[in-house]
Give the backbone structure.
Amino acid sequence: MLRSKFYSQFDAGASALGRKVLHPIEYTLEMLLMIYLSIRAAAFDQAQGFRSVVSVVSAQIYFTGFQALPLISVLALASGSIVTLQSSSNLGLLGGENLVGSLLVAIVIRELAPLLTALIVIARSGTAVASEIGNMRVNREVEALEAMGIHPLSYVVFPRLAGGIISVVCLAIYFVVIAVLGGFTLNAVMYQKSFSYLAASLADALTALDVGFFLLKNMFSGAIIFMTSCYQGLLVKQSPHEVPQVTTKAVVSSIIYVVVFNMTLTLLFYLSRLIDLGIL
Amino acid sequence: MTVRRESIETMAFKDLGFAYENGETIFEGITFEIPKSRAVWVRSPGGRGKSTLLRLLAGLMSPTQGAYFLNGQNVTEMSFEDFLPYRLNFGYGFDMGGLLNNKTLAENLVLQLTYHSLASPEEIHSRLESVVQHFAISKFTDMRPYSAPGSIRKLACVLRAFMHWPEVVFLDDPATGLKEDNLNDFLHFVDEGFGTRGLKQVFFTGENAALAKRFGAEEMMISTDWFTTRAAA
């Protein structure tokens, strides 16, 4: 009797554990399937003209990219200034002023710009997209599109995804430019370092691999944010009270996915460095 | 590029079953050929399944069991693209909602026509003007749905189902929310559709017997495990 009770409890525990492990995998696969279907639908949609796609993509770029510029500017200025000032003042004590460029590349370009840009886009646009699509579901707009023979994945998801990726990449580039300019200006004012000296230090530190990783991080972060937000929005069945729930889930999932993805790429980057140096 | 439209000749279910995700069974084991009369009033003694049936017929939902045949062809497992030629000969009016909030009422009315290039720009403009004049709604056409009165939203949603001149229209509770004069204009508009715009059949739900009488509609009674029809009263 006791033995069978133990087995049934073990069974239930194992099933629950299995579900916990399988759920994120299933969730990720469903999102990837949605992306595949939206790209396929957009490719096969004979009616959806270039103008229609461009109009939604440009609206997405305006809301996600252009309207986020003030917030990105403030954060970029702060991050660039802090990193440059701290590195100048501390490295100066050790005689390593010429490493300012390297630190700027390592901290701002490789890490801060992709991560902070992604977090801002999640907070501003990921929430907006999830709640917008959720409300479209409640208001039966998605169903109405389908009734009119307009594929919701090509009309709603694809342009938001494309616009989102473009916006995140552009915002991250803008972040880097403002952060570097801000850092350089502060350095020039406080430590009388010339722009050309700082620019040369930055150029020395920046490699093609940095640029590649930077673009990869931002493109995938954009894809992750808008994939998650669209997917969560489409999960709404019919009730308005589901909209804030899916919006919260979109934010939480996006942050987890983006952070894990960024950390994985960073890890791979430093592993490749260690391999290059012959340490591993 | 103009998309092909498939004429609708017959609609039938074979061993139809439908259950929602929560396990609630709406239909079970129904084999039935949908009547061909020009107006069909879908009624349910139990009050359940009318909207679901319209959605199944319009291809907005798939049966969870059995098959749906259009012109003798099983369309249950068809892809969105393959079903499109049939869908373009369907019109669907929702009981509530259904208008795109980021478009004006005029843009909503002609969205399907412009998206699929189902008519020339001049023809689209002429159809829109004709509807706007017929229902005297010109002062609302540039409004977004959320800023238009409820009766106008409902009217726009119902009218949109007819703008591409479909053969078959499904109207979920069309009379509720429409003003009396708009309803009369609408009935006249549908009558015209049968005569001049290639409209073959209208399905509708709701408890407005006057609407059924005006159309001379055949009644289609539905329940969980049977469908039946009877001539207009």
Observations:
- Chain A has a mean pLDDT of 87.
- Chain A touches chain B through 22 residues (CB under 8 Å).
